[in-house]
Amino acid sequence: MGRMSxxxxxxxxxxxxxxKLSVGLDIGSHSIKACQLEELGDGYRIVGLGSAxxxxxxxxxxxxxEPEMVAETLKRLISNLKIKGRKVAISVSGYSVIVKxxxxxxxxxxxxxxxxxxxxxxxxxxxxxxVYLDYQDLKTNTENEDRTDVMLVAAKRxxxxxxxxxLKDAGVKPVVVxxxxxxxxxxxxxxxxxxxxxxxxxxxxxxxxxxxxxSHGTSxxxxxxxxxxxxxxxxxxxxxxxxFEDAEAIKLGIKDAGEDKKEIDDICxxxxxxxxxxxxxxxxxxxxxxxxxxINKMVLSGGGAKVKGIAQLFSEETGVRTEIFNPFARTDAxxxxxxxxxxxxxxxxxxxxxxxxxxxxxx
Length: 363
Ligand SMILES: Nc1ncnc2c1ncn2[C@@H]1O[C@H](COP(=O)(O)OP(=O)(O)OP(=O)(O)O)[C@@H](O)[C@H]1O
Ligand SMILES: [Mg+2]
Prior knowledge:
Layout: E1 20-21, E2 23-27, E3 31-40, E4 43-53, E5 59-60, E6 63-64, H1 67-81, E7 87-92, E8 97-105, H2 109-119, E9 131-137, E10 147-156, H3 157-169, E11 173-179, H4 180-192, E12 198-204, E13 209-215, E14 218-225, H5 230-240, H6 244-251, H7 261-289, E15 297-301, H8 310-318, E16 322-324, E17 331-332, H9 340-357, E18 360-361
Parallel strand pairs: 2-7, 4-17, 7-11, 12-15, 15-16
Antiparallel strand pairs: 1-18, 2-3, 3-4, 5-6, 8-10, 9-10, 12-13, 13-14
Helix pairs in contact: 1-3, 4-9, 5-6, 5-7, 7-8
Bound molecules: adenosine-5'-triphosphate and magnesium ion.
């Protein structure tokens, strides 16, 4: 890792067996998800898991709009879950975060660090004084090459500081600030890592979709699209002229749609088709650069991945095998404490939180 400004902004720390793990906190626009794991054999055991819905508008486009409300919700969640470890890992995304892969001459660690500090401005559209900067040498150079890919991450200080302040107010200690796309990658790696494959990881939340194409463990393409499952709720709301809450209940099947079922299904398919269009765009872009490296499968996570029949629709429309992410594939739970049906139900939206929960922390 490069030279850090305090507080520490890190991503993708090497995972070391035997170390304690941070509590993963995914602060989305719809809800906060918390996950605490401990290592067990070559997998994990769930220590704590839960989510709490946020008041509408409290988090928007990755920015904390109402930090007090978010801190209150977080305090409640942590106390409900009886989480003891207070060291947490969060992730950020949105227009205040830039992730960029750059190609540089191979350099020693020291030299690379000062080069990045000096040259970062040409790669990112922000004033260097206003961002936390981090990078990782992906060491993609082969023996006779003198160039390597370096992953550069810049996150606006005011946005990150807003989160750090809020976490402090909620009584927890942030030890890792990651990027959503990398947390997703870590979640995948923790469960299915080590295979030689190209996968498209797609997280569909309430307000955004995150597409991350990972080839043999390295992210090739990462993009955020402002299209989430809330759009389905909003379209139901305006189509039937009802409240947001009623529309959400109908979408989730809590409230019976009765004779309107067909129209509701059409709205769902319409939004899913917009997601597919964005995914196809990303796939096309990928194939224009890597025509010979076939994408083996797509894996869907986030609450939006719970739309009925979505995996089949994605498979049919793109021709790529699609499955729903199970972030607990290598995780055990004490069934007396945590209901297996509950973990299954929560799985898709817990994905990012589990990725963050596998981050090692020095205690
Ligand atoms: N069965 C379902 N069908 C459709 N949508 C669903 C279903 N279950 C949950 N959702 C939706 O998923 C969204 C919540 O997902 P998630 O927790 O991944 O979002 P988030 O992380 O808070 O949001 P974001 O990442 O976009 O900021 C809500 O819009 C919720 O209505
Ligand atoms: Mg999310």
